[in-house]
Design a protein that fits this description.
The protein is built from 15 helices and two strands. The chain has helices at residues 2-28, 31-59, 65-92, 125-143, 153-176, 180-184, 192-210, 226-245, 253-281, 286-300, 309-333, 342-360, 380-412, 419-424, 426-431; strands at 119-120, 123-124. The chain is 69% helix and 1% strand. The chain is globular and about 60 Å long. It has one domain (34-418): Ammonium transporter AmtB like domains (Ammonium transporter fold, Orthogonal Bundle), CATH 1.10.3430. By secondary structure, the chain is an all-alpha fold. Helix 4 packs across helix 5 (153-176), helix 5 (153-176) runs antiparallel to helix 13 and helix 9 runs antiparallel to helix 10 (286-300). A two-stranded antiparallel ribbon has the order 1-2. It starts with a helix and ends in a 7-residue tail after the last helix.
C-alpha cells in the first residue's frame, strides 16, 4: 500500500511538472505574434516574387524582360540556401547567445542550434530566421536593377552569393544581431542601412565597374511595359506592410503605427514625385508616381518604428523630392547608367530616412515625435550623430567590399556579355527564350 501511494505521488508530481512546463511554454509563445510574423514573412517574399520581379521586368526593354524575371527568381532560390547555410549565423549567431560586435558566432551553421521548441522572443526561432531570410532575399534582388540588360547570369549568381555572405550578413549583424551599431543606439527599424543603403551603394559600384549599356544617352531605352511595372509596384506597396510592420516582431501597437506611417510615406512620396514632374515637364507620368511610391517606402523604412504620422508625411514628401533630383543627377550630371535607378531611389532614400529617423524620434517635437516607440537618445543632435555614423560606416564598407567582390567575379567568370550579345538581348543569348511570342 505504501509503495502504491509512493508511485501515485511520483506520478502526480510528474504530471504537475509536465503541466507547469507546458503552461510556461504556452505563456512564452504568443499565438498572435506568431500569426502576424507568419503573415509578414509571406508578404515580404511577395515583394520579391512577384512584386519586384514585375516592377523591374516592365522597366527594361522587351528583349530583356525574361532575364530580369529569371534573375529575381534565381536570387530568391539561391539566397534562401545561402542564408540557411551561413548567412543567418553570421548575422544573428546562436539564438540566446551574446554576440560579438562585427559578426555572429558560427553555432547556427545550417540552423544547427535551432529546433521546433526554440523561441526568439515570443515567436519560434525558425519563424524569425525565415522572416529575416526574406530580407536577405530582396536586398541582393534590388541590386539586379543596376546592371540589368548587360550582366552575365553566372556572374550575377556568384556576385549575389559572395555579397550576401561578406556584405549583407555582417551589416545585418552590426545593426540587428547584437553588433556595434545596434549597441550605439542606431535607429534602423526595418532596414534603412541593412537593406537600402547596402543595396543602393552596391548598385552604384556595380554600375560603375560594369559600365553603361551600349547606346546609353544616345539611344532611347524606354520601359517596354509600364502596365507590368504598375502591377509590380502595387504588390510592393502591399508587401511593404509586412516588411515594416512585421519588423515589430509581434502583433503590437508598434506594428500598427509602423503600418500607418509606411502607408502615409508611400502616398506622400508618390504625390511629391508626381508634382515635381508636373512642374518641371508639364505632365505627370505613371513611371514617376510609382517610383515616388518606392522612394517613400524605402525612406520611411528605418524610421517606421520611431516616428509618428506627421513625421511620416514629412519623410515621404522629402523622399519624393530628394530622390527625384538624385535620379536626375545620377543619369544626367554624373552620366552613370544605374539602369533602374537603384542608388538614387533606395540608396539615397535609405540615407535620408536613416538620418531623419534621428530627427523625428526626438521626444521634444510634438506631433512629429515617435509617440513613445523610440528607444533611442532623447537629444536630437546626439541621435542624428549616431545615425550619421551608421550611414557613413555602411556606405564605406559596402562600397569597398562590393568593388572587391565584383573584381573577383570578373576574374573567374567575367561580369559582362559582349556587344553583339547585348544587342540581341539577354533573353535569347542567356536563356534561349523570348518574353513574348505574339
Amino acid at each position: 500500500m505504501r509503495k502504491l501511494k509512493h508511485y501515485l505521488r511520483l506520478t502526480s508530481v510528474f504530471f504537475l511538472a509536465l503541466l507547469v512546463s507546458n503552461g510556461a511554454s504556452a505563456a512564452d509563445l504568443s499565438g498572435a505574434d506568431t500569426a502576424w510574423i507568419l503573415t509578414s514573412t509571406a508578404l515580404v517574399l511577395f515583394m520579391t516574387i512577384p512584386g519586384l520581379s514585375l516592377f523591374y521586368a516592365g522597366l527594361v526593354r522587351v528583349k530583356n524582360v525574361l532575364s530580369v524575371l529569371m534573375q529575381c527568381f534565381a536570387v530568391t532560390c539561391l539566397m534562401s540556401l545561402v542564408w540557411f547555410a551561413v548567412g543567418y549565423t553570421i548575422a544573428f549567431g546562436s539564438d540566446g547567445v551574446e554576440q560579438g560586435p562585427f559578426i555572429g558566432d558560427f553555432g547556427n551553421v545550417f540552423f544547427a542550434s535551432m529546433s521546433m521548441d526554440t523561441l526568439n522572443g515570443s515567436i519560434p526561432a525558425s519563424l524569425f530566421a525565415t522572416f529575416q531570410m526574406t530580407f536577405a532575399i530582396i536586398t541582393p534582388a534590388l541590386i539586379v536593377g543596376a546592371f540589368a540588360e548587360r550582366m552575365r547570369f553566372s556572374a550575377m549568381l556568384l556576385f549575389s552569393t559572395i555579397w550576401l555572405i561578406f556584405v549583407y550578413a555582417p551589416v545585418c549583424h552590426w545593426v540587428w544581431g547584437g553588433g556595434w551599431l545596434g549597441a550605439m543606439g542606431l535607429q534602423d527599424f526595418a532596414g534603412g542601412t541593412v537593406v537600402h543603403i547596402t543595396a543602393g551603394v552596391a548598385a552604384l559600384v556595380a554600375a560603375l565597374v560594369i559600365g553603361p549599356r551600349s547606346g546609353f544617352q544616345t539611344v532611347a531605352m524606354p520601359p517596354h511595359n509600364l502596365t507590368i511595372t504598375v502591377a509590380g509596384a502595387g504588390m510592393l506597396w502591399v508587401g511593404w506592410f509586412g516588411f515594416n510592420a512585421g519588423s515589430a516582431l509581434g502583433a503590437t501597437d508598434a506594428a500598427a503605427m509602423a503600418m500607418l506611417v509606411t502607408h502615409l510615406s508611400a502616398a506622400c512620396g508618390s504625390l511629391a514625385w508626381m508634382a515635381m514632374e508636373w512642374i518641371r515637364h508639364g505632365k505627370p507620368s505613371v513611371l514617376g508616381i510609382v517610383t515616388g511610391m518606392v522612394a517613400g517606402l524605402g525612406t520611411i523604412t528605418p524610421a517606421s518604428g520611431s516616428v509618428g504620422p506627421a513625421g511620416a508625411v514629412v519623410i515621404g514628401l522629402s523622399a519624393g523630392i530628394v530622390c527625384y533630383f538624385a535620379t536626375q543627377a545620377v543619369k544626367n550630371a554624373f552620366k552613370i547608367d544605374d539602369s533602374l535607378d537603384v542608388f538614387p531611389v533606395h540608396g539615397i532614400g535609405g540615407m535620408l530616412g536613416t538620418l531623419l529617423a534621428g530627427v523625428f524620434c526626438a521626444q521634444n517635437l510634438g506631433i512629429f515625435s515617435g509617440n513613445g516607440f523610440s528607444d533611442g537618445i532623447s537629444s536630437m543632435s546626439g541621435q542624428v550623430g549616431v545615425q550619421a555614423i551608421g550611414v557613413v560606416a555602411t556606405i564605406a564598407y559596402t562600397a569597398i567590399a562590393s568593388w572587391v567582390i565584383l573584381k573577383i567575379v570578373n576574374i573567374f567568370v567575367g561580369l559582362r556579355i559582349d556587344g553583339d550579345e547585348e544587342n540581341q538581348g539577354l533573353d535569347l543569348v542567356l536563356h534561349d527564350e523570348r518574353g513574348y511570342t505574339l
